[in-house]
Amino acid sequence: MSPPTSSNVGALSFADWMRSVQAQVEASLARCLPPGEAIPARLHQAMRYATLNGGKRVRPLLVFAAGELSNAPNARLEVAASAVELIHSYSLVHDDLPCMDDDVLRRGRPTCHVEYDEATALLVGDSLQSLAFDLLAREDFADCTRQLEMVRLLGHASGSCGMAGGQSIDLEAVGQCLNQPELELMHALKTGALIRAAVQLGGLCGEALSAAERDSLDRFAKRVGLLFQVVDDILDCTANSVTLGKTAGKDAAAEKPTYVSLLGLERARELAADLRGQALAALTIFAARGQRLVELTDFMTQRKF
Ligand code: GRG
């Protein structure tokens, strides 16, 4: 299927649109990752192993869906979406290491350090992260001001005041009893910051949004980031490892605080429904232009893996 363009995107069903964006991002990642035979071949093969052929590509989908609000060029969205997915892939590789979550299954396959080795997995994460910024800084991607803003935004979202900071809080929280605001802060950083960045990057790829539109989009991004995590916590204790493609029940086994451990399953489900409502309410300002974001919010609420 060819990539969606601003002229045909409205005509595609959500399922076709999603498949088309996923295929486009897969092809873009395959192109921008160094070939498996390029020296150092083992590292490059491991980078490709950790990034390609798997993953729902939720963050790239958010980039593309947010890009529809600002009539963003498809090629620019592809670069921004690929950069976010590289950061996400790096975070999963490092998260699975024995010094972090110590997991053996990811996207239905052995984790990167199991398939290769720990040192290689560490370098895979490092290299994927560097590649993300390399991609955003390439000269033909956009105008320099926009590129700088995107580099800064992604750097902030993935660093110690964003995803890596959230991971640090997560590691300290093992065996602790966090209250709801503390849990929310941890997830706003660990999972939410990159999801928020994906939405912001999509919004930045096209024509300038008004201040009111930017505020609404950011409100949406924060709510949908939290929604993603609440659903993840619910799936961790209701779905099995085969469906999830990762080890189910990990959080409870590791004595990690989650929305389910804090609120119970039913209230966690109610919270997910509330967050969905708040996310959709934030999109009303965009009317029909927000259609894909609305559909994507529902996909993120109803996902089974
Ligand atoms: C190591 C700096 C560093 C950060 C790690 C993302 C993360 C922070 C840890 C992952 C642990 C985890 C399972 C978090 C819950 C939410 C989450 C990020 C799930 C995985 O994302 P999906 O469902 O995965 O989008 P796919 O495989 O579909 O890409």
From TrEMBL:
Q: Provide the alphabetized UniProt keywords.
A: Isoprene biosynthesis, Magnesium, Metal-binding, Transferase
Q: Which Gene3D superfamilies match?
A: Farnesyl Diphosphate Synthase
Identify the InterPro entries for this entry.
Isoprenoid_synthase_dom_sf (IPR008949), Polyprenyl_synt (IPR000092), Polyprenyl_synt_CS (IPR033749), Prenyl_diphosphate_synthase (IPR053378)
Fetch the Pfam families from UniProt: polyprenyl_synt
Q: Which GO terms describe its biological process?
A: terpenoid biosynthetic process
Q: Name one GO molecular function term.
A: prenyltransferase activity
Look up the record and report any one GO term of the cellular component aspect.
cytoplasm
Question: PANTHER family from the xrefs?
Answer: FARNESYL DIPHOSPHATE SYNTHASE
Family recorded in the similarity comment: Belongs to the FPP/GGPP synthase family.
The protein's name is Polyprenyl synthetase family protein
